[in-house]
Fold:
Amino acid sequence: MTQTTGGPTDHSTRAALDSLGGSTRPTPSPLPTTRRGMLRYRVLPRSVLGISMLVLAFAIGAGFSGVVLYSYYQYKQNQADTKINALVNGYKSQFAKAQADLNAAVAGAKTNISDQVKAAQQLQAGPAQLATLVKQMAPSVFFVHTQDANGQPSVGAAFVVSSNGSDSLLITSYTTVAAATRSPGPNVYVRQGNTDTQVTVRSWDPPYDLALLILPKGGLPALTAAPTNPAPQPGDRLFAVSGLGSAGASLAQGTVVDVSGNGLALDDAVSPAFQGGPVVNQAGQVVGVASRSYAPLGFPNDGIWYSPYVQAACNKVLTCPGGTLVGSH
Structure:
């Protein structure tokens, strides 16, 4: 048996077949030899289908990334909207509370102002109250006129403290009738309306600036004294009354500045026509006697006038049965 061995004949035969194109094995591509080339050879596809798949993968990755980024953006936007809404709602709540507090403060201020206005109105008598008080005082108050020691006119006011069927007792200022307390002295007259009536000076007290007149006319309404309790207080509103006025009397409003055992300090404008007239409260009750000369502190008055309490008349110029100014004599 003859064995075939790979000798020169085989190589020559293969070479001959190759030269004739008889070989069917493809010639392999040469492999890359560099590191970069080897990486690209392993990662990048080498066919159209592979490239398409790579592009599709990139597209899917980009879409997924977009969804993730949009979701994150939406999440952050929702957080921001929640914070803004909370801030707005908190501001609205604070604004509503502040508005409620402001409204409450305004209401409180209006109430306070109203209370202060009422207090001022109580202190400051209105026209209706003044007219009522003038009407109440007019029948009991007179204008007094005479002459002083030099023959000059001397005027004042007087008011009824007691009256019977024939005559009446009037309190006035000693300063007004001082000249008539000496003999011979001038006549003293009281006027009510257009009627003058001569009166008699019965008693007097210069330190307290008080005098008592007897009017030969009875049936007149007598003024009543104000109660001693509660006593007048600084800030109380009082009225000095004169017998002059178109309505039969006139008033001067004033405030109690000070209270002492000797009388009241008032800021009433006590003109000569008011001296000797009653100082009354809003109820028309007599508290004191208006004076331009009474000086319990021992020095002249200047803008602040002192009035002796009306009770002093009971001790100085007349006797008051039962301690009251109202009654027969």
About this structure: The chain is about 35% helix and 25% strand.
